[in-house]
Amino acid sequence: MSTTWHVLGAGSLGTLWATRLARAGAPVRLILRDAARLQAYEAAGGLTLVEHGVAQCYAVAAETPDSSEPIHRLLVACKAYDAQAAVARLAPRLAPGAELILLQNGLGSQDAVATQVPQARCIYASSTEGAFRDGDWRVVFAGHGFTWLGDASHPVAPIWLEDLDAAGIPHEWSTEILTRLWRKLALNCAINPLTVLHDCRNGGLQNHHCEVATLCGELTELLERCGQPAAAENLQQEVERVIHATAANFSSMHQDVASLRRTEISYLLGYACKVAERHQLNLPHLTQLQQRLITHLHSLGLPSD
Fold first, then answer.
1. How far, in Å, CA of 31 to CA of 7, rounded?
2. What confidence tens digit (pLDDT) does each residue in 114-150 have?
3. How many structural domains comprise the chain?
4. What range does the domain containing 230 cover?
5. Sheet harboring 138-143: ordered strands across?
6. pTM to 2 decimals?
7. 70 in the same domain as 26
8. Is residue 1 pLDDT above 70, yes or no?
């Protein structure tokens, strides 16, 4: 019998993984916040995946965190700021040697989760897949991307990667997962906050070339100081490539702010500035960017943590 995939977080990425795994015949169980959410989900009849304009509903089983079934494999697909508390609630259900796949943006939340569940193996993931929700329990697959997975303390790849092959989730096991996460953090720091402050799509940053270049210079300095020279390599060219390739898209942070949702600033720009301070590294433009973003969020009544 295949190991059940418990999926925590019914947002865009969690729903995207759950529906594709279920479609491939893998056992999947969705963990929902409380009985009211479970009732709403059961009334909807399942999760809907919209791919190439075609909608398909999958009757994925669901439960609340209080269910008694042991968890052997947990996909943590909630926001970075929710991950620690959500996993803490499930910690008593984790079987010895349980595996957690952490799909959070930025850095900081992964270490916090790993520290509180020392009995589990935590696998970090970095994904470029694009998806958005156009309704409750519905996800639109917007952009086929790639997912890198890795475990900095245990480089051997897990057997369940076969499930991802069967589900058509493009992936690669990386022995340099921290490099991947740092690189993505730097890209997010160079792009996302500026799209919010200039209220533009990613392509609009082509009109702010100097500002982008200055930030890339400081982020390169930070990555090198943190012992991540590979993540720093040709950072500016990569940022410019992403801006061009995703010119028509709104960044995830821009979407959050436009919808008056809490952002993941603490795990992106906040994390970068905190690490720079720890290394006594003076990065004035990055620090100023963080302050401008915090001021903007407060003006909208949004939290800055």
1. 6
2. 999 999 999 999 998 888 888 899 999 987 889 999 9
3. 2
4. 179-299
5. 54-58, 47-51, 138-143, 130-135
6. 0.93
7. yes
8. no
